[in-house]
Amino acid sequence: MSLPLVSVVIPAFNAQHTIDRTLASVRSQVHAELEIIVVDDGSHDDTRGRILRHAREDPRIRLVEQQNGGVACARNRGISESRSEYVAPIDADDLWHPEKIARQLAVLQSSPEVGLVATAYSVIDADDCLIAKVGGTSPETTTFENLCRRNFIGNGSSAMMRRSLIERFGGYDPSLRQRGGQGCEDLQLYLQIAEISQVILLPDPLTAYRRSPGNMSTDSVQMTRSFDLVAANFCRRRPELRSLFNDHRIYMLCWLLNGALRAGNMRQASEIAVQLVQTPSITLPGALLDAAVRVTRGMSRRWLVERGRRPPLPWPEPPSTPPQAREASSARSSQHH
C-alpha cells in the first residue's frame, strides 16, 4: 500500500544562510512521500541557487518564484501549487526532527475530527544550539478558547493541517501585511481551524524555531500590531473573547521581552515592559507583571550574565517515541523505497 503524500511548503526570502539546513531537515524525514515546494519570495541573495542545488539532488523539491509579497502570499502560493490533503509549512530558517511528519500524519489519518496537529518545539540560535524548549509532557487536545488565551503552537513551522480547512478560510491572510501588521498570519489561521475542529499538540519538541535578530517575530511593534488586528477580527464577532486575548497579549509580550533580554537589547526590553503593565488582565498573576517592571531596574543584566555561563546544547534531542515505534516507521519507509 502506497504511503500518503504530504505537501511541504517553504516560503523563502533572502534565506541563503539557513535554507540549506532547513531543506536538509525536510529531506531527512522518515516519512519520505513528500512534495517540497519552496517559494522564493523575491530574494536578492543566493536563495534561488541554493534551492536549485537541492532540487538537482532531490526530485521531490520544486522551486516557485514570485515577486516579493510577504510570508502569507508566499505560503498561499505554495499551497495553491501543492497536491496533497495534508499541508505542512516550515519557514526557511527552522528545522524538523526526522519523525515530525510521520508522527503528525498518524494522528490526522486516525482521527478525522482533528484538523490540525502541532508539536512542541525547541528554540535554537543561529548555530542550531538549544535555547529553550516549549511544550507539554503528553499529547493534548486543546480548545479554541485555550488557543485564544495563549498560542501553544507558537510558530509557523510546527503545524500540519488539512488542506480542506486551509482553503475554507482562504489560507493565510495577506491583508495583515497591507495593514502594517505582518507576523500573526499563522495564529489567525490556527484559530480559525480550532474554532471548527480539534487541535492536537504532540509533546515532543519535533520542531526547532530559530530565534535571531533578523526574525520578523523580534519586531515587537509590528508583532503587537499584528496580534491586535487578529484579536479584533475575532472579538468583533465574539466580544466575550476579549479577556482571553488580553491574557494572550501579555504572554506574547513576555515572549518578546525574553527575546529582547537574550539579545541584550535593553531599550526594546524596557519598551515591551511598559506595554506589559498597560495591558489589562483579570486572570494572570500580578507577579508576572511585576517581573516585567523589574526589567527596568537592572535585574535583566544580571540574568543575562547567568545565562551566558550555561553551555549550549545541540538540537535535536531524541524524542520520547518508543524505540520499537521508530524502528517500525523506518522499516516502512525503507520498504516503500
Q: Could you describe the 3D structure shown?
A:
With 337 residues, the chain is of the alpha/beta class. It has helices spanning 19-27, 47-57, 71-81, 100-110, 144-149, 163-168, 175-178, 185-196, 220-235, 242-262, 266-278, 286-295, 299-308, 323-336, and strands spanning 6-12, 34-41, 61-66, 86-89, 95-96, 114-124, 129-134, 140-142, 160-162, 198-210, 313-314. It folds into two domains: 6-217, Alpha-Beta Complex (Spore Coat Polysaccharide Biosynthesis Protein SpsA, Chain A); 238-308. It is 46% helix and 19% strand. Strands 1, 2, 3, 4, 5, 6, 7, 8, 9, 10 and 11 form an eleven-stranded mixed β-sheet that branches. A hairpin with a 4-residue loop joins β6 and β7 (129-134). α9 packs antiparallel against α10, α10 (242-262) packs antiparallel against α11 and α11 packs antiparallel against α12.
Q: Concise description?
A:
The protein is an alpha/beta fold. The chain is 46% helix and 19% strand.
Topology:
Blueprint (H helix, E strand, L loop, with lengths): L5 E7 L6 H9 L6 E8 L5 H11 L3 E6 L4 H11 L4 E4 L5 E2 L3 H11 L3 E11 L4 E6 L5 E3 L1 H6 L10 E3 H6 L6 H4 L6 H12 L1 E13 L9 H16 L6 H21 L3 H13 L7 H10 L3 H10 L4 E2 L8 H14 L1
Parallel strand pairs: 1-2, 1-4, 2-3, 6-10
Antiparallel strand pairs: 4-9, 5-10, 6-7, 6-9, 7-11, 8-10
Helix pairs in contact: 9-10, 10-11, 11-12
